[in-house]
UniProtKB/TrEMBL annotation:
Transmembrane segments: none annotated. One of its GO terms (molecular function) is hydrolase activity. It comes from Novosphingobium pentaromativorans US6-1. InterPro entries: HAD-like_sf (IPR036412), HAD-SF_hydro_IA (IPR006439), HAD_sf (IPR023214). Coiled coil: none annotated. This is Hydrolase, haloacid dehalogenase-like family protein. Keywords: Hydrolase. CDD domains: HAD_sEH-N_like.
Length: 203
């Protein structure tokens, strides 16, 4: 898809901010093998995705404690210390957002982010004041790559898919948006994104 791009739509995790759940649990589990087991079986990204998609945090935590007894304090840390899984910003990405805003390019986001974690994180990050709207999977109870979240976003953002470029690090999400007629950029790093946006006349 190509043509005049009116708006830029960002993913958040691993595009604008770093995210690594292992960072939190490495502080709590000293043994490397035990840490590997825990991240592979207990607090996994697949399990976390259920929360992103709208499952209640309390229910998920209680269910997981039953499935993996003896790990209560670690599973509780997932619920109470999530911001510690965000070590910082993705280098160069925030600068791109600010430059786009300075050129009056409309900015939006679609993020797989659990509602309570998003509210906690959003309060700490003023960059998102530059965004016109942000579709959060936990609020919609629909997560990428489900086509419905892209349809919600298009309606809310007020632009046709072909008039927007969607930026995400996840190939499945990029493929879903592409099938729906969005312009897409599969994010790997900020320099390549800058090059693409410059080529498209947005920077």
């Amino acid at each position: 898809m190509s043509g005049t791009i009116e708006a830029v739509v960002f993913d958040v995790g691993r595009v604008l901010v770093q995210w690594d759940m292992r960072r939190l649990f490495a502080q709590l589990i000293d043994d490397a093998d035990r840490l590997d087991w825990f991240m592979t079986h207990v607090v996994t990204e697949e399990w976390h995705f259920l929360h992103d998609a709208g499952r209640d945090l309390g229910e998920l935590v209680a269910e997981r404690k039953t499935q993996f007894p003896g790990n209560d304090h670690l599973i509780d840390a997932y619920a109470t210390r999530f911001l510690e899984t965000i070590p910082g910003n993705v280098p160069g990405s925030h600068e791109i957002v600010r430059e786009l805003a300075g050129r009056d390019v409309p900015l939006f986001a679609i993020t797989n982010f659990a509602s309570p974690f998003w509210r906690e994180y959003r309060e700490s990050e003023p960059l998102f004041d530059l965004f016109g709207d942000i579709v959060v999977s936990g609020d919609e109870k629909i997560a990428k790559p489900d086509a419905r979240i892209f349809e919600i976003a298009s309606r809310r953002f007020g632009h046709e898919p072909g008039a927007m470029i969607f930026i995400d690090d996840n190939a499945a999400n990029i493929e879903a948006a592409d099938r729906l007629g969005w312009n897409v950029h599969h994010f790997t790093d900020a320099p390549r994104l800058r090059e693409d946006l410059t080529r498209r006349g947005l920077l």
